[in-house]
C-alpha cells in the first residue's frame, strides 16, 4: 500500500491478517458519509456496502452489519438479539465499544469482541465492502468471510 494507513486502520489490518481475511485495506480519496458515496468511490452497488452500525442493546454493544440498501428495523433486531431495548448508540458508546469513530467502524479490531448480526442481504453480492476502522478506509470481503471473522449471526434486519 502506497499510502500510510491511519492508526485505527493499522489495527484493523492486523486483525484481518490474524483472522485469515483476504482483503486489503483501501484508503478512499475522500470520506464516505453514506453508503451511496462509498459505493461510488469503490465502484459497486450501494447494496454491497456493509454499513457497520453499533446499537446499545440493553447496555451492551451490538454490531449490525447491514447492506447499504437497507434501514435497520430496530424492533426486529431487538427480537432477534433477545434484547428489551435496542437504540442507536452515542458516539461515545461506539468509541468505547470499538475504539473506532462513527463512520469508520470496522467489523473487527475492537478492544473486546462485539456481538454481531450480519444482514443476509449482503450474501447477494460476490464482493462486499466494509469500513476499515477510519472514515477514509474500507476493505473488500465476502458475506461468508464477514460471518466467519466476526463470529456473527446471519439475520434479516428489515
TrEMBL record:
Domain YbaK/aminoacyl-tRNA synthetase-associated: start-end pairs: 30-148
GO MF annotation: an example: aminoacyl-tRNA deacylase activity
CDD domains: ProX_deacylase (cd04333)
Signal peptide: none
Entries under InterPro entries matching the protein: YbaK/aa-tRNA-synt-asso_dom_sf, YbaK/aa-tRNA-synth-assoc-dom
Protein name listed in UniProt: YbaK/EbsC family protein
Natural source organism: Nonomuraea cypriaca
Amino acid at each position: 500500500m502506497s499510502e500510510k494507513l491511519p492508526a485505527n486502520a493499522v489495527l484493523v489490518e492486523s486483525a484481518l491478517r490474524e483472522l485469515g481475511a483476504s482483503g486489503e485495506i483501501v484508503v478512499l480519496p475522500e470520506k464516505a458519509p453514506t453508503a451511496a458515496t462509498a459505493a461510488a468511490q469503490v465502484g459497486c452497488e450501494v447494496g454491497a456496502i456493509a454499513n457497520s452500525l453499533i446499537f446499545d442493546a440493553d447496555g451492551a454493544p451490538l454490531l449490525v452489519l447491514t447492506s447499504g440498501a437497507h434501514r435497520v428495523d430496530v424492533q426486529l433486531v431487538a427480537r432477534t438479539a433477545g434484547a428489551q431495548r435496542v437504540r442507536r448508540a452515542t458516539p461515545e458508546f461506539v468509541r468505547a465499544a470499538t475504539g473506532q469513530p462513527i463512520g469508520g467502524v470496522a467489523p473487527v479490531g475492537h478492544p473486546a469482541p462485539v456481538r454481531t448480526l450480519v444482514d443476509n442481504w449482503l450474501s447477494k453480492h460476490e464482493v462486499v465492502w466494509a469500513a476499515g476502522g477510519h472514515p477514509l478506509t474500507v476493505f473488500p470481503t465476502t458475506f461468508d468471510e464477514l460471518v466467519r471473522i466476526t463470529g456473527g449471526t446471519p439475520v434479516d434486519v428489515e
